[in-house]
Amino acid sequence: MYLQDAGYNYINLDDCYAERNRSASGNIIEDQVRFSRGIVRYQYISANVHTNSVQQYSDSGWFTCAGYPGSFQNELRDARTFQDWGFDYLKYDNCAIPYDSIIREGIVGKYERMADALEELSATSGHHPFTFALSDTSGNRTRWGKQFGHSWRTTNDIAPHWDALANVMNFNSFITQATDFYGHNDLDILQLGNGDLTFDEAKSHFTAWALMKSPLLISANMSTVTNETLEILTNREILAINQDPVVGTSISPFRWGINPDWTSNSSFPAQYWSGQSQNGTVFMLLNTLNEPSDLTFNLTESPWIRAGRAYSVRDLWTHTDNGTAVRNFTAHAVPPHGVVALLLKDAGDEPAGLFPECSVWIQCTDKNGTRVGGNRPFDP
User: Fold this and answer.
1) Helix, strand, coil content of the chain in percent (nearest 5)
2) 353-373 burial, b for 16+ CB within 10 Å, e for fewer?
3) CB 327 within 8 A of CB 354
4) What distance in Å separates the CA atoms of residue 222 and residue 244, rounded to the nearest whole number?
5) Mean model confidence pLDDT for the chain
6) Residue 51: phi, psi to the nearest 5?
7) What is the reported pLDDT for 48?
8) pLDDT higher than threshold 50 for residue 336
9) Cβ neighbours of residue 219 closer than 8 Å, sequence gap 6 or more
10) Architecture of the domain defined by 2-242
11) Active-site residues: which are they?
12) What is the pTM of this model?
């Protein structure tokens, strides 16, 4: 299987899989039409295509967002049902919230109830713990989500057009520090193969989600997906950074570009990003304009680049080695809403005799106190 070979190893089952009412004994029942041979058969199909597992869905309220049974006051019962069905990954939503006089808990408490149930189930059954994905955007989960889950949605539901993607990238540019090996900002499901995204927009979408270490869930109709889309989804060099076993952190902006730094603009998110990987420094250059644009940066604007060093340049989309960068790099004519993804590796000292002596003039000073440009030396 092409996608499995690239590392996609879950089949994801979302809302609407159940009957509208629980059984007489109180258990969730799989839809008798959609799963006429039983939902365990779904797990059997998953095993036959050699995925690692399947993802299940439920809700912290009375009902799911589509009106099927939620797990409020049935957390352990439902967790046990999901485990019996063969699931070990739970996406947990936040619709149909009980009245305050009943629940007497905030957003944290609603997720803690299921987190406790999953922990108890693992302890009593001997099975490994569920992966727990928090699927709601209220309550600033970046501050507490890691206590209870492995990922947390950061924005409202995504849509398959550029404006929606730009909004997600903008919002997440300010919370990248929340992602590490122990928890991930979830930027929502991938929209490649849906809507009217251009090829370059689809590449930008996938690059940003992957390099920000978001979970990567394909939502397209796989029977109609194009080879072009599959080519993007299976970019091994991009996926290797998303799945880096040494570095779990996200890329972050080092310069916003057309906007002043730290400006929130849902139409024009940050353009210059970088981060660490086990094999070098990763860069994402994003053209947020509606026309081709050159994107230029000083290497040391990234905190992961050493001054006085040259760097080999690997293009993660053309899969080519593009020479050596010294001090600066320019990506020419990046397409509208397009992206450049680079991996820079230390290639030794930069050439001798470069002027000015510093790649950045600010505070560049000789040991005698003279600054670059002949400014007056510091007073003794």
Assistant:
1) 25, 25, 50
2) eeeeebbeeeebeeeeeebbe
3) yes
4) 26
5) 92
6) -80, 160
7) 56
8) yes
9) 189, 190, 191, 193, 194
10) Alpha-Beta Barrel (3.20)
11) 93, 157
12) 0.94
Domain definitions of the chain by residue range = 2-242, 252-349
Q: Are 175 and 169 in contact (CB under 8 A)?
A: no
Identify the CATH homologous superfamily for domain 252-349.
Golgi alpha-mannosidase II (2.60.40.1180)
pLDDT band at 46 (very low <50, low <70, confident <90, very high): low
Q: For residue 282, what are its two tokens?
A: 């990763």
Helix axes 75-84, 107-125, angle to 10 degrees: 50
Asked whether residue 374 carries a pLDDT value surpassing 70, the answer given is no
Three-state DSSP class for residue 253: strand
Alpha-carbon gap, residue 379 to 290, rounded angstroms: 51
* 143 C-beta neighbours (distance < 10 Å), count: 11
78, two tokens: 């439902």
Distance CA 32, CA 337 (A): 45
Nearest CA-CA partner of 131 in 119, 149, 113, 147:
149
pLDDT score at 50: 47
- N-term to C-term CA, the chain: 71
pLDDT above 50 for 380: no
Supply the pLDDT for residue 1.
Answer: 57
CA 196 to chain CA mean position, Å: 21
Res. 51: pLDDT tops 70: no
Residue 116 pLDDT > 80, yes or no? yes
**Host H or E run for residue 322:** strand 320-326
* CB distance 372 to 364 below 8 Å: yes
Spell 6-20 as b/e; 16+ CB within 10 A means b: eebebbbbbbebbbe
